[in-house]
Write a structure and sequence with these properties.
This protein is of the alpha+beta class. The protein has 20 helices and 21 strands. Helix 9 packs across helix 11.
Length: 664
Amino acid sequence: MNLSCFTRNKQMFLGENTKDKSMNTSLILLFLIFFSIHYSISAQRNFLTTSYALEELKEMLVMNQKWVNYPDYSNRKAWDSLFGNQKQILIENGEAYLDYKWQVVKATDYLDYTRTGNRETMQVPYFENQDAIGALILAELAEGKGRFLDKIIDGVFMNCEMTSWVLSAHFRLSPKEVKNHFPDRNENLIGLYSSQTGAMLSWAYYFLNKEFDKVNPLISERIQYEVKKRILEPYMNMNYWWTALPPYAKNKPKVNNWNPWCNANVLQCFMLMENDKDKLAQAVYRSMQSIDMFINEDKDGACDEGPGYWGVAAGKMFDYLDLLEKLTSVKVSIFDKPEIKAMAEYVYRANVGKGWVVNFSDASAKAKGNPYFIYAFGKAVASQDMMNFAAYLKNENPESMIAYKRDINRTLKNATISKALENTTPVFKTPEYSWYPKTEYCFMTNKEGLFLAAKGGYNQENHNHNDVGAFMFYANATPIFIDTGVGSYTAKTFGPERYTIWTMQSNYHNVPLINGVAQRPGAKFKATNTSFNKNKKTFTADISKAYPENAEVTSWIRTYQLQKNGLSIKDQFSLSETKAPNQLNFMTWGDVDINTPGKVMIQVDKEKVELFYNKQEFSVALKPIELNEKKLSNVWGKTIYRLSFTAKSLQKEGEYTFQIKKKK
């Protein structure tokens, strides 16, 4: 319902010319009830399940794997054409594993997560095994001589003999009351990597089952048995949080990338292994209900898990929707929805250039992105900008390959668009602005090569850091004021001790300590009155509610204004009580000089900026932070810095201003 109709007919609703006050009130209440119901329904998009009923879907299904548009294993000319100049690369990748020693994931590898919080002990051998079998399958498809078959069979057998395909860190998400970090033979959980392994084995079965049967029919039979037991049956019978289906839907679960990631993998298993039409239809419809929950959760297209997660969040949604199109001969398709296009285009809008990305949440500040996959998604949603951006990425990284580790589906999909990508003009232009009003992300750029990313939001976002009101600033695609990112995941990362990790804390982000108090985690700690003005190039948010009561802050309005040659930061504040000096922090790196009062000079590579502050108002300190984790030091080097400006006086109300200028 358009609100303008209420305005145009306000005389009817407000009863301006009637004396019947009760009738007037009743009409208003009826309108409000109608509007709230309408809004509730429209907020739940349910694009898939409101458009297609189960019985309709059943009649649309392409059965017996006739939807597969890739060659049969024996059609060598077709495979040569599909893989083109990457055929030899795929073969060489497989050859590297011909002497691979399959690793046993030991009981103590699982136990190490419980004992020390270390995920890598179990994950490293597990992932190396999966990388090997993925590369071997693709190499055999590329070459077709049977040279890799024995090794693939060993990998299949190794996987089938494992008690579980779930990571040690993910057993904590079991529906059981007693959480365990050890494989349970009585529990077939479906998680990110168990579903991925199921999908990979399903593709191996589809392409190679006749070759397996020549060796021993029990190999194919075993794959069928294990995929059915570990994926197909549990999916239809489980109550698992990531589906966001009952009973979890009643509690409004927080839907994240697990939903499309698992659903896309599970759908592959059903499409490749289930040939009973009724069972397949029921499974697909259940997955459509679940994927709808992920799409409903999206606010405005921004990926609040960070651009590093885009490929396994919106990107996995694309995998799912693309598979669904194939299975229904494109009768079930929602790529024309603007909401889906917005989710797709986030990947280039959050890209700054030179490999740098806007890295709010658990994301690295550097990400290459796979140009083939980005092109495919861009083509699906008819985004020429996205396709040109993919060509730009390919031009920047000419060694980019179609192959995805452990993801046969994406690799094959990438191969189909390889030639189209090569014939696309490489263009990357950062949009003048990208504004996500519900996620409260704002990106701005100008002709002088400056780029600002700022956020409002709240402190319970997916992969949240306490960073309401934070910003990042770049000069000529070089980060100057930064978000450090996240280190290697441990048990602490997703447990009650998450915010004991310094990279998660607000005092190591570009936001203030108010009255000596940092922001707190939780949905109630949020920005309010957030706004963006594209003409003035300003982003404003009141961040006072991101702080607990003992911060004694009633209002803290932060305003960023991107200017021709710099950035203005203004904080207008009001405190109910003063307890300790306010401290404004800025995270940076490179060469930092604070020796000139009133000015800080920063140089990163060839880019130089100056930060001006009121020397009468603040004392300045520079704290070096040594980066001992490779995940961080590989991005920033050995050391980053926290610039801290501490107020010299206590005041209940005031205004702080900082000016950042790009130095020519």
